[in-house]
Design goal:
single chain; about 290 residues; alpha+beta; 7-stranded antiparallel beta sheet; 5-stranded antiparallel beta sheet; 7 helices; 14 strands; about 40% strand; globular
Length: about 290
């Protein structure tokens, strides 16, 4: 088990006063069988006139806020202390044929009802024809679900280039499939489309990955980033195999889970709208995931 201090700061500045900022954030990590949250605090500056924390449909901590005082800057800062263990999976569940991981085909299996919404097409993980064909190469008849999901993860890692300039936050699965490039968000959406288009249940996961500095270098505070991966339902169980196509590995004790949903649109760290006559704005995001042990 590994203990971390997670710090996430999102700072906006505007060229003119903003009259109203209405937003929502997913910044508090989840309590899970393999993850314990000792403390989690989020502050918004200026202080909102209304703050409404809740648990959303997917079980995530989600907070609505409304800043009503005029402001030319807005900062949202989150700090958490989290202990993470390596998730454990049932070997028999991993060995089941992938065809059983389709809850719409096998609604009587335990966990199928809860998994169904993650087998459906979503806005940012559309059932692209190219993704369907790409996924078919991993989903061969009768192949164990753990092996098939891992093979898909490895192929995306091998075939796609990590390129921050290749896509934007609004890019589609089709864009990433065409360019064979993108970032972690794109790779997660591609994998989701590959799996869901064949009927499997898989969910988008948002959080952080603790990174290590190059040999001989010191950690640079605030140089980390949010991360995205996915988890595939293991049929007949409440277990989900978490895989990371960006780094070609199963999620382990270096992964801090914040939220999950159908795709990025359900769990974006910060989202919202503003009312202003400002012509320009800037955004700066800093993240730090520091081991405490």
């Amino acid at each position: 088990m590994t203990r971390y201090r997670v710090w996430h700061r999102t700072a906006y500045t505007y060229s003119d006063a903003v009259q109203d900022s209405i937003g929502q954030f997913h910044l508090r990590p989840r309590d899970l069988p393999w993850q314990t949250v000792a403390q989690a605090e989020v502050t918004v500056d200026p202080v909102p006139g209304d703050v409404s924390p809740r648990t959303d449909w997917f079980g995530n901590s989600s907070t609505y806020f409304h800043v009503t005082d005029p402001h030319e800057a807005l900062t949202i800062e989150a700090a958490s202390e989290v202990t993470v263990a390596v998730p454990e999976y049932d070997a028999e569940a991993l060995a089941q044929p992938w065809e059983l991981a389709r809850p719409l085909r096998h609604p009587d299996l335990p966990g199928a009802v809860e998994a169904t919404e993650y087998a459906l097409e979503s806005a940012r993980a559309a059932h692209d024809e190219a993704a369907y064909a790409y996924g078919a190469d991993s989903l061969t008849p009768g192949r164990p679900i753990g092996e098939a999901a891992t093979d898909l993860m490895q192929r995306i890692f091998r075939d796609f280039d990590y390129d921050k300039t290749a896509t934007t936050v609004t890019s589609t699965v089709a864009d990433a499939m065409t360019k064979r490039a993108g970032v972690c968000q794109d790779f997660a959406h591609v994998a989701l489309a590959c799996l869901r288009s064949h009927g499997l249940a898989a969910r988008y996961v948002s959080g952080y990955l603790a990174t290590q500095p190059p040999p001989g270098k010191e950690r640079v505070f605030g140089a980390d980033a949010s991360h995205a991966w996915l988890a595939v339902w293991l049929p007949g169980t409440d277990q989900w195999l978490a895989i990371d196509p960006t780094n070609n590995q199963w999620a382990n004790d270096r992964y801090v889970t914040v939220a999950w949903g159908r795709d990025y649109g359900d769990v974006s760290p910060v989202t919202g709208i503003i009312f202003t006559e400002a012509k320009t704005s800037t955004l700066r995001v800093q993240v730090d995931v520091a081991p405490l042990d």
